[in-house]
Design a protein that fits this description.
By secondary structure, this protein is an alpha/beta fold. The protein has helices spanning about 25-40, 65-75, 120-125, 140-150, 190-205, 205-210, and strands at about 1-5, 10-15, 20, 40-45, 60, 80-85, 90-95, 115, 130-135, 155-160, 170-175, 180-190. The protein has an 8-stranded mixed beta sheet with strand order 5-4-1-6-9-10-11-12, sandwiched between helices. It has a two-stranded antiparallel sheet with strand order 2-3. Strands 7-8 form a two-stranded antiparallel ribbon. Helix 1 crosses helix 5 (about 190-205) and helix 2 runs parallel beside helix 3. The structure holds cytidine-5'-triphosphate (CTP) and calcium ion. One of its GO terms (biological process) is coenzyme A biosynthetic process. GO terms for molecular function: catalytic activity. InterPro entries: CoaB-like_sf, DNA/pantothenate-metab_flavo_C.
């Protein structure tokens, strides 16, 4: 299979030197990429800025903003059999990026923010016979929220994890299907979990998507 993986955080610039982002390390996405490569698949890795080396053998696309992640993902999805969206995409961006550097005002300021495009939702809407695996980071009503995201973004499955996973070497995940039930649970090092998730996908994908070759 040829698998598109999104990873890492995105950055949204306030001016030319300042941005809003999050603490994602990119480890889960990179571990999934490594797992897929080790198991003989091709990987297209679209990654926000992280401190990790892209796994050897993947097709690597470095991006910074959500718009760039969207463009790279939409461009490469048609050549892939499926996508795993592990990126911690910024939900908001400043309405305007100020040219140069904002000076201090001597008092509080507020920044007008608008929602970013949902990369996974765009891929889900265009999936055709491809498969789509999303991630959901939840601190409350976890399974319920994960199921809502699965439906809203047209995913086959969604990987539920907890905010403590951000920046950590370990993770605890549940794979949720379209009935909202956890069909698999894994805990441990992100690399071990990733190996098991890729293996699980390989054996449980619908035949129609595997036929794509
Ligand atoms: N995602 C995306 N583009 C966005 C926001 C999220 O592709 N602009 C993807 C993430 O990569 C993840 C899934 O959508 O696979 C769910 O992300 P999450 O942050 O848990 O959910 P949101 O839909 O952003 O909702 P909220 O943050 O409000 O819970
Ligand atoms: Ca979000």
């Amino acid at each position: 299979m040829r698998i598109l993986i999104t990873a890492g955080p995105t950055r949204e610039y306030i001016d030319d030197v300042r941005y809003l982002s999050n603490a994602s390390s990119g480890r889960m996405g990179y571990a999934l990429a490594q797992a897929a490569l080790t198991q003989g698949h091709q990987v297209v890795l679209v990654s926000g800025p992280v401190d990790l080396k892209p796994p050897e053998g993947c097709e690597f696309h470095s991006v910074e903003t959500t718009d760039e992640m969207r463009d790279a993902s939409v461009a490469h999805f048609p050549d892939c059999d499926g996508v795993i969206a592990a990126a911690a995409v910024s939900d908001y961006k400043p309405r305007e990026r100020v040219e140069g550097k904002l000076a201090k005002t001597g008092g509080p300021i507020s920044i007008d923010m608008i929602e970013t495009d949902d990369v996974l939702a765009q891929l889900g809407a265009a999936k055709g016979s491809r498969w789509v695996v999303g991630f959901a980071l939840e601190s409350q009503n976890a399974r319920e929220n994960a199921l809502q995201k699965l439906r809203a973004k047209n995913c086959n499955w969604i990987v539920l994890n907890h905010p403590t996973a951000i920046g950590s070497l370990d993770n605890q995940i549940e794979l949720i299907d379209d009935t909202g039930h956890p069909i698999m649970k894994w805990a441990g090092a992100k690399q071990d979990i990733s190996n098991q998730l890729i293996q699980w996908l390989e054996t449980n994908l619908p035949d129609s998507s595997r036929d794509l070759g």
